[in-house]
Write a structure and sequence with these properties.
By secondary structure, the protein is an all-alpha fold. It has 6 helices and no strands. The radius of gyration is 19 Å and the shape is elongated.
Length: about 220
């Protein structure tokens, strides 16, 4: 029975890695479509959100089977409950990536009022957080999870910088207001992705230690 449980947990980790790859791809695709003003790619990125949602449902079902069939001990229950929390944050990351592509469709082919350098850098930082958070769960690496939590300040810093740039653009020319609002929303979605990566890392700490960082 115990051996079967370990096999199923290994399969669960593989599925989590796969879903992690999906959401990294989703963020990267959405931001590249935005920067290139690629409407076709943005549309595909939106459609890809259903793949992420389906993977969440598959992992959730696998967790339920483990709970019902294997009667896991307390430490195993932590790992399974952490997975259920993690995939919820992953699914929301997928949603926010799709939201970015929705804005790309609204922006269309109109010339941008600014270069999107900082948004691109912010996306890279958010993707790195997501990748490391999932890796921390798979490796049960608390130190890496803490590194992810601390990295959220980098993403937040980009958000503040972008917000200041956009406010300056509005002050220069009120006609910039529509695109400014759209870019601000995109930056906010990226900030939320960083927050979700932080949540994932916090559940990794809980899974491995039994204590949630916010409760310490």
């Amino acid at each position: 029975m115990r051996k079967q449980f370990q096999v199923q947990m290994t399969d669960l980790k593989r599925s989590l890695i796969e879903m992690g790859g999906y959401i990294e791809y989703a963020i990267d695709t959405a931001v590249k479509a935005l920067i290139k003003q690629d409407v076709a790619a943005a549309t595909k990125a939106i459609e890809f959100d259903e793949v992420i949602d389906q993977k969440e449902r598959e992992i959730e079902s696998a967790c339920m089977r483990l709970l019902i069939q294997q009667q896991p001990v307390a430490s195993d229950l932590r790992k399974i409950s952490a997975v259920l929390k993690i995939i919820t944050d992953m699914e929301r990351i997928g949603d926010q990536s799709a939201d970015i592509s929705e804005i790309t469709l609204l922006l269309g082919k109109d010339p941008y009022i600014k270069e999107l350098k900082h948004i691109s850098l912010m996306a890279e930082a958010a993707i790195s957080m997501v990748h490391k958070a999932v890796d921390a769960y798979v490796r049960e690496d608390t130190n890496l999870a803490i590194e992810v939590i601390q990295s959220d300040d980098i993403v937040d810093g980009f958000f503040i910088e972008i917000r200041e740039e956009l406010c300056d653009l509005i002050q220069r020319n009120v006609k910039n207001v529509h695109q400014t609002f759209d870019f601000m929303m995109i930056a906010k979605y990226l900030e939320r992705i960083g927050d979700h990566a932080t949540n994932i890392a916090e559940w990794v700490v809980y899974s491995t230690t039994g204590s949630h960082p916010r409760e310490v």
